[in-house]
Amino acid sequence: MTWAAITGWGACMPPAVLTNADLSTILDTSDEWITTRTGMKERRVSHVSAMQLSTVATRRALACAGLDAGDVEMIIYGSCSYEEQVPNAASGVQAAIGANRAAAMDLNTACTSFLYGLSTATAMIRTGVIKNAVVIGVELISRYMDWSNRNVAVLFGDGAAAVVLQASDTESGVIGSVLGCDAEAREVLRVRGIGCGYAGRGIMLGDTAWDFDGPAIFKRAVKAMSEASGRVLEGAGKTGADVDLVVPHQANLRIIEGVAKYAGIPMEKVMLTVERYGNMSAATVPVALVEALEAGRVKPGSLLLMPGFGGGLTWASLLVKWGERVTPTGVSDVALPAPTKTALEMVHEIRASQDPHGRSAAALATPFVA
Ligand code: ACO
Questions:
Q1: Any alpha helices (H) in 264-317, and if so which ranges?
Q2: Model-wide pTM > 0.90
Q3: Ligand 1 mean position, distance from CA 327 (Å)
Q4: Fewer Cβ atoms within 10 A, N terminus or C terminus of the chain?
């Protein structure tokens, strides 16, 4: 039987930090409100494109795996922050790293894009379609955030990470996937203003209006992630007690606590990044995975549970059995250029270029209806 081992991993976090105190200078909010409601203290704002973040993360993951870019067979770019629709972003990473023999596809299920990508790549390797893949989770939400809306602006951050999967005879990698979508609730999270359905309405590029029912998402997220985790564990003949580490989507500390409690897993066994990075959508799980490995929290043979949810409302829970190697084969010296502005200065610039409640307000008032 063929498995799809995770043999390489690499993250690329933009260095500029936006704190709760920074946010309270531009919005009617406070460190106390954000911390108690979400567990977040700070998040990152990127000074480079999502494709650049992805390229650095991918180079690091390939060095870690000891795999040449020229031997990569598939690149899956999991994201909902595309700089362009055509050409796709995966082909941009392919060109940047010189993966001449690879196929390249973008995959958007919002915050679960990395988990869906990991499941998809695993299935393709296990069925012999490909022998290896790079799966990226990346998000650049700062560029289309509505920075005048405190309901959403405090929650999100930018970041990227990638993993390399390779065919293996030894049982490892994703050993169970449960995927689904609460489509009847797709209206509770919508970013108006991006997508061709908004073309021709006179919306200024980057202006958005967010439909966001936080409490409804919260309840559905806990339920869907918990049930999916129960099903994926049951399918593998495991219980919460068998899990060595939970690497969850990080939208809110209280959501994560609810999911861990339902699975009967103590919080000491949960990898948390939400305090430092906020919700990076598709990037949260792979960044947390990379940091868990770097912190020595993944051991040879560890059982990892990866639950997530996102706009759609898509949800997923993956069960991963780690292989023998928990240290990199090699290290890439690739790095981002240093930012020349602080995170708050970048946010001020983005804000100054936006005016969702002015120029674009009328056009954004009506959502696209199919
Ligand atoms: N600062 C201060 N006050 C705020 C802020 C803020 N940043 N944002 C909202 N408020 C106010 C609201 O205006 C409201 O005021 P009102 O009661 O006077 O109307 C009040 O705070 C709402 O408070 P709560 O109902 O207590 O908020 P709650 O505990 O539900 O927390 C939150 C809100 C954090 C959004 C929570 O519902 C949540 O985490 N939801 C799910 C997470 C989520 O949606 N994540 C992202 C989407 S999914 C994905 O990952 C793609």
A1: 274-277, 284-294
A2: yes
A3: 39
A4: C
Question: Is 110 close to ligand 1, i.e. is its CB under 6 Å away?
Answer: yes
User: How many residues does the structure list for the chain?
Assistant: 370
Q: How would you classify the pairing of strands 209-212 and 245-246?
A: unpaired
Can the peptide bond before residue 87 be classed as cis, meaning omega within 30 degrees of 0? Answer: yes
Where do the domains of the chain lie, and which CATH numbers do they carry?
A: 3-326+340-359 (3.40.47.10)
Ligand 1 near 329 CB (within 6 A): no
CB 133 within 8 A of CB 121: yes
Amino acid letter for position 201: R
Phi, psi of 17 (to 5 degrees): -100, 130
- For 182-270, strand residue ranges (E) read 189-192, 209-212, 245-246
Contact call for residues 298 and 292 (beta carbons, < 8 A): yes
Question: H or E segment at 95?
Answer: helix 89-97
Q: Which residues contact 318 (CB under 8 A, 6 or more apart)?
A: 115, 118, 119, 174, 176, 177, 178, 232, 305, 306, 307
CB count within 10 Å of CB 267 equals 12
pLDDT along the chain (370 residues), means of 10: 98 98 98 98 98 98 98 98 96 98 98 98 98 98 97 98 98 98 95 93 92 95 97 98 98 97 97 98 98 98 98 97 98 97 98 90 86
**Is it true that the peptide bond before 313 is cis, omega within 30 degrees of 0?**
yes
Of 254, 224, 266, nearest in space to 115 by CA: 224
